[in-house]
Recover the amino acids of this structure.
């Protein structure tokens, strides 16, 4: 492929109408979380911009992010892979294998040096020279570093890639960590989640592909349009929280009535994601809607914040904070009373000493 | 009791005294509402049709108290600037501070019958510095949980780094809750030390936070901080 095709070229080649193309662009605009006045810019980009070359690497992970990606409905994952991006290398979705497949990776790196987008799923295993995660016969960390060198931008898909994932849970036997320290100074978009929402995955890659730049990011490197709100603030059960109506156990009347799951350990108040407004699988549901408290899967280190069914004050490495605090307060109270009693004795002694001194002076006079 | 001549020292400006009592009210309000927010009581609401938005109200009271607290802090800073008696910072840069602290500590450990007279004793000052450090942590972590409802707001921009630094917003909740209890432990110690000081020395320690004056028998060692020596 010498002249790289744009999205419009692909549509022409496949004989799809202009009308469908514009519809597709409108869908893309909405999916990327952009305002409708951006439509003309999206159309322009889709007509002129060559399809972005994407190398999709998989590291220390379960490929659950791919499972999620494949369930993207608008656009269909197949549309993204076949029509909207130029996917040159993917461990999971490729037909090729073995030597020719690896050779194709080398070819792609050289041919599109400095132009391709690198999407990474999975953590980097760092312990013992990275031998706990090998791809193509090499430690994954080496592959990642080599491919990242020529990338225009890097997208970290899933909490593994952004902060190490479940295999990084204490005591982290494989030394897993996020990819951010292994890609040099390349621009990075973090798309955390275990897995991320399908439309968020496609939305981020389309944004980078069409505009040639990263979406606006927050302090944690996450795209603001998808990670700008707390699940708690967008949750449809929030009114029950405000009203003080809580499910106390999984089978009580509150649970049946769909009340707030805060007291069952829901991490919604600390979790930034689009589950509350976009939901999963074409808006079908999301964990809280299914009656399960959020476990905060898009938070770094969520795996070490077990048990998921407990919030403060019961949660914590030292136990129930309110019990510890009340214990400290009582201990201080007891200490204070004892000290007070001893101080009374001290004062009495001091007064006696002073009196004796006074008397002595009187005698001397 | 024999009569002893005493001198009145004017110490605390109204700014410090107002701040102190508003701080007391705010800390107690924040603590109680905070406990309810972390662990809501099930009895507050039982039926969606007759609810009073209790949780929302408790949260609003918590936030209101927090903002009043921060606003009154500005008055306290003003008092700090205009009145020497309000400057309670431990003078750690002065050599004699350490020997004096040790002496006071020995007295509190009941190893010395009395300590040198002070208007504001060095150990107490250390505890206030500790309290302000805890309050500072509460303000930082509190706003770091409050503002990111809108990440793009000014507050969100200023405070969201706290959550990243602590390794996640859930940890921010944890720190906020622990420090709240440490402040209550401080309150118990503080109230006791004030009552004890009045009992032992009778220098008007407790009433000074209303009247602003202390009445001492001896010349206090830190008198040069509030009035220049002629």
């Amino acid at each position: 492929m010498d002249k790289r095709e744009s999205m419009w070229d692909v549509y022409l080649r496949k004989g799809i109408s202009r009308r469908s193309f514009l519809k597709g662009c409108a869908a893309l605009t909405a999916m990327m979380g952009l305002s409708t006045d951006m439509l003309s810019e999206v159309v322009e980009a889709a007509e002129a911009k060559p399809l972005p070359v994407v190398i999709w690497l998989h590291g220390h992970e379960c490929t659950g992010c791919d499972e999620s990606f494949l369930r993207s409905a608008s656009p269909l994952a197949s549309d993204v892979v076949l029509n909207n991006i130029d996917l040159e290398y993917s461990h999971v979705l490729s037909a090729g294998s073995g030597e020719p497949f690896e050779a194709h990776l080398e070819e792609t790196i050289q041919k599109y040096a400095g132009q391709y987008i690198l999407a990474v799923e999975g953590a980097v295993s760092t312990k013992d020279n990275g031998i706990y995660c090998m791809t193509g016969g090499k430690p994954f960390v080496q592959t990642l570093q080599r491919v990242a060198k020529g990338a225009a931008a890097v997208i970290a898909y899933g909490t593994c890639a952004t902060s190490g994932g479940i295999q990084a849970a204490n005591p982290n036997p494989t030394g897993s960590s996020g990819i951010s320290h292994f890609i040099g100074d390349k621009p990075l978009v973090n798309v955390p989640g275990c897995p991320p929402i399908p439309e968020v995955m496609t939305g981020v890659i389309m944004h980078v592909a069409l505009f040639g730049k990263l979406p606006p990011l927050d302090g944690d490197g996450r795209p603001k349009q998808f990670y700008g709100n707390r699940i708690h603030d967008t949750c449809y059960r929030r009114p029950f929280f405000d009203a003080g109506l809580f499910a106390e156990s999984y089978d009580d009347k509150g649970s049946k009535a769909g009340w707030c799951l805060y007291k069952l350990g829901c991490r919604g108040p600390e979790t930034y994601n689009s589950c509350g407004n976009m939901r999963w699988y074409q808006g079908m549901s999301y964990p809280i809607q299914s009656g399960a408290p959020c476990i905060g899967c898009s938070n770094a280190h969520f795996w070490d914040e077990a048990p998921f069914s407990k919030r403060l004050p019961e949660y914590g490495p030292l136990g129930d904070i309110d019990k510890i605090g009340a214990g400290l307060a009582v201990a201080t109270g007891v200490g204070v009373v004892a000290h007070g009693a001893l101080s009374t004795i001290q004062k009495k002694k001091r007064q006696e000493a002073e009196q004796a001194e006074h008397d002595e002076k009187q005698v001397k006079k | 009791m024999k009569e002893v001549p005493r001198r009145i020292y004017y110490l605390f400006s109204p700014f410090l005294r107002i701040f102190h009592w508003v701080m007391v009210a705010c800390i107690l309000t924040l603590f109680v509402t905070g406990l309810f927010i972390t662990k809501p009581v099930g009895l507050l609401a039982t039926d969606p049709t007759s609810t009073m938005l209790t949780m929302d109200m408790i949260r609003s009271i918590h936030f209101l108290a927090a903002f009043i607290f921060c606003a009154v802090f500005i008055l306290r800073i003003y008092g700090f600037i205009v009145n020497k008696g309000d400057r309670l910072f431990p003078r750690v840069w002065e050599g004699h501070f350490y020997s004096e602290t040790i002496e006071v500590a020995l007295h509190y450990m009941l190893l010395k019958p009395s300590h040198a007279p002070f208007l504001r004793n060095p150990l107490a000052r250390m505890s206030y510095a500790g309290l302000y450090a805890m309050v500072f942590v509460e303000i930082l972590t509190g706003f770091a949980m409050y503002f990111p409802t809108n990440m793009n707001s000014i507050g969100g921009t200023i405070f969201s780094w706290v959550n990243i630094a602590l390794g996640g917003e859930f940890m921010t909740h944890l720190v906020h809750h622990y420090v709240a209890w440490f402040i209550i432990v401080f309150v118990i110690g503080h109230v006791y030390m004030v009552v004890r000081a009045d009992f032992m020395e009778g220098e008007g320690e407790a009433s000074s936070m209303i009247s602003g004056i202390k009445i001492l028998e001896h010349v206090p060692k830190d008198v040069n901080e509030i009035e220049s020596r002629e």
Observations:
- Chain A has three domains: 7-227, 229-311, 326-365.
